[in-house]
Amino acid sequence: MDFRESKNRFPPMSEVRLDPAETALLLIDLQYLDASPDHGIYGRMRREGKGDVCAYFVSQLPGVVTNARKLLDACRAEGLEIIYTRIGSLTRDGRDLSPSYREKGFHAPPDSRDIEILEELARRPDEIVLTKSSTSAFTSTQIDQMLRYMGIRSLICCGVHTNYCVETTVRDAYDRGYGVILASDACASLRQDFHDMALAVMDQVFCHVLTTEEVLKRLRGRSRG
């Protein structure tokens, strides 16, 4: 049996309730370090002549950013909490980062360009930005406690990379009792098969995988209802 068909053996997940008072949009690591073709990790790879390694990912970024912006605009209009995560360290040399991040060069010092959220998705005053030093936002930030204090029970997620920080954050959110929707075309991985497999593993097990348009339709339908 194809692994991607195995999810059909599980009972379908219950619907995620999109009550604006209990729902947040979580934008995962859409920053210059790892979501820009000209800065950070991928800017460096392209300058070093390794652009072929990240060519697929870079080709997906415009669509990811466009769809993340659609979600951002819609969620702001509906009054949802907006929360960003970003990879970053509290120290100039990154000694506070997880070993995994240090080994892979995922280092964005304080006040660097790499730690900043992409301009197209820039935060507004009073929106929350959490700096994390590991793949999951639930491991190295106070996000769980903060969400509970704010009465958040459901998350709409997007960001990069699908099979890395996005997946670990989605899994951890589910294990803590949150309802999760993942916008499939507002995420990307280094390779399409990584992206597709991560979505197949998560869908109907840890989250509902929907397209951006499907998420927007859910939000609009809630408004009309």
From TrEMBL:
CDD domains attached to this UniProt entry: cysteine_hydrolases
UniProt domain Isochorismatase-like: residue ranges: 58-214
MF (Gene Ontology): hydrolase activity
Highest taxon listed in the record's lineage: Bacteria
InterPro entries: Isochorismatase-like_dom, Isochorismatase-like_hydrls, Isochorismatase-like_sf
Keywords: Hydrolase
Record Pfam families: Isochorismatase
Name assigned to this protein: Cysteine hydrolase
Protein's organism: Tectimicrobiota bacterium
Lineage of source species: Bacteria, Pseudomonadati, Nitrospinota/Tectimicrobiota group, Candidatus Tectimicrobiota
